[in-house]
TrEMBL record:
Name recorded for this polypeptide: UDP-N-acetylglucosamine--dolichyl-phosphate N-acetylglucosaminephosphotransferase
Organism superkingdom: Eukaryota
Catalytic activity: a di-trans,poly-cis-dolichyl phosphate + UDP-N-acetyl-alpha-D-glucosamine = an N-acetyl-alpha-D-glucosaminyl-diphospho-di-trans,poly-cis-dolichol + UMP
The keyword Metal-binding is annotated on this UniProt entry: yes
EC number: 2.7.8.15
Function summary: UDP-N-acetylglucosamine--dolichyl-phosphate N-acetylglucosaminephosphotransferase that operates in the biosynthetic pathway of dolichol-linked oligosaccharides, the glycan precursors employed in protein asparagine (N)-glycosylation. The assembly of dolichol-linked oligosaccharides begins on the cytosolic side of the endoplasmic reticulum membrane and finishes in its lumen. The sequential addition of sugars to dolichol pyrophosphate produces dolichol-linked oligosaccharides containing fourteen sugars, including two GlcNAcs, nine mannoses and three glucoses.
Species of the source: Medioppia subpectinata
Length: 414
């Protein structure tokens, strides 16, 4: 079938995916609440309103339905006379691409299921790291049997020592496995204000689509980018519909299901589209947030269950949330991290009074180490919707920076 026709079918199916997600969410919202799958919007005055959780599962299911219906399209011969091979030509059927397609959907499907399990069971961090690794195995397997390229081009400054290219072998598979773990969790920890999870997913997906379109026209690897487009366009549709309902004031929450679904979809297209390094360039805020969060994630300092900002009902704004740091009880490495962040002016840090009123130099209040809090440290308290808009604008700017690195700076190194 003509590539242009395939793209048109993909676009039409994506429009249907948008409509499906947009209409199904309001219809099933109450079923989730009835099943106790709801949360409380912590940045609102009224804490009695139940907001349906895990609506990412609706987006994910609609996405899977559309992608399953789309499976035959890239492989159909079309235009041939009716007969034994009227739909597929067995002679030039691309088994490798077909296997990639199926395994990609299997990995995404696993991740939606595991994300939903996380929402229902509130899994521990250890499990959250293990699950995406297991869900990537079909993907790594199909990469191994169809492409298996683990050689990377060495950047110019290192070529004298390492040569033009470097074979990474199993290390490359470990990198790809870790990529899926990173993508899923990195989105999940930039969370807690209305619209931010689905918003960042949308910006990253649109950045990937822009990159794919540019490469589709300009590069000889166009088939990989077409493969990525087939996955990304329906993803943008379901995310946009989900974001519509999740935007301030949220009628639904996307849940960990969406974060895992989005992260795995990005990992799938990055790995099978052979542009995983470029894809990471669209994750600059998430990479920064992960590095910035490390002292809390790895328990060098305290990490409260929720690190999202606090709500001030008087001004209807949100402000920095904090954690307590008792210097004498904090690990030396934790103290060092916080000291560096203080020197770089990346945290709000102040001593707090002792129980009986006198000031103590030992206990401090430090802003939680997330990019959302950092925005509030730098710009002061703001309305929740505004913070989401600032963060999404930052995500767009970082994508522009990513394109500049990919098409500008990388030429110096490669
Ligand atoms: C991650 C973050 C946690 C953050 C939480 C918010 C880390 C290590 N974990 O945890 O700091 O507080 O996401 O999602 O960084 N919620 C809102 N408004 C929103 C979205 C969520 O109030 O716009 C609240 C609701 O109460 C909702 C809950 O967050 O029920 C969902 O939290 P969950 O996704 O389970 O938290 P984690 O992913 O474990
Ligand atoms: Mg979450």
């Amino acid at each position: 079938m003509d590539v242009l026709l395939q793209i048109v079918i993909n676009l039409v199916m994506s429009a249907m995916a948008y409509y499906g997600t947009y209409t199904v969410i309001p219809q099933v919202r109450h079923l989730f609440i009835k099943a106790n799958l709801f949360g409380v919007d912590l940045c609102k005055q009224n804490k009695d309103i139940k907001v349906a959780e895990s609506q990412g599962v609706i987006a994910g299911c609609v996405y899977l339905v559309v992608m399953f219906l789309f499976i035959p399209v890239p492989f159909a011969t079309g235009g041939r006379p009716l007969g034994y091979e009227w739909l597929f030509s067995l002679e030039d059927f691309r088994h490798e691409v077909f296997a990639q397609f199926i395994c990609a959907l299997l990995s995404i499907c696993c991740m939606i299921f595991l994300g939903f399990a996380d929402d229902v069971l509130d899994l521990r961090w250890r499990t959250k790291l293990l699950l995406p690794t297991i869900a990537t195995l079909p993907l790594l397997m199909v990469y191994g049997v169809t492409y298996n390229n683990t050689t990377i081009v060495v950047p110019k400054p290192f070529r004298a020592a390492l040569g033009y290219s470097l074979w990474l072998g199993p290390l490359y598979y470990i990198y790809m496995g870790m990529l899926a773990v990173f993508c899923t969790n990195a989105i999940n920890i930039v969370a807690g204000i209305n619209g931010i999870e689905a918003g960042q997913g949308l910006v990253i997906a649109l950045s990937i689509i822009t990159y794919n379109v540019v490469e589709l026209v300009a590069s000889d690897q166009w088939q990989c980018h077409l493969f990525s487009l087939y996955f990304m366009v329906p993803f943008v549709s379901v995310t946009a519909a989900l974001l519509y309902h999740n935007w301030y004031p949220s009628r639904v929450f996307v849940g960990d299901t969406y974060c895992y679904f989005a992260g795995m979809t990005f990992a799938v297209v990055g790995i099978l589209g052979h542009f995983s390094k470029t894809m990471l360039l669209f994750f600059i805020p998430q990479v920064f947030n992960f590095l910035y969060s490390c002292p809390q994630l790895f328990k060098f300092v305290d990490c409260p269950r929720h690190r999202l900002p606090k709500y001030d009902p008087k001004t209807d704004t949100i402000f920095v949330s904090t954690f307590r740091l008792k210097t004498s009880e904090t690990k030396p490495l934790g103290r060092l991290f916080i000291k560096i962040l203080r020197i770089l002016r990346l945290v709000q840090y102040k001593p707090i009074g002792a129980v009986n009123g006198s000031a103590t130099a030992d206990t401090y209040e430090c802003s939680n180490l997330t990019i959302i809090n950092l925005i509030l440290v730098k710009l002061g308290p703001m309305h929740e919707k505004r913070v989401t808009c600032v963060l999404l604008a930052l995500q767009v700017l970082c994508s522009c920076l990513g394109f500049f690195i990919r098409y500008g700076i990388s030429k110096i190194f490669y």
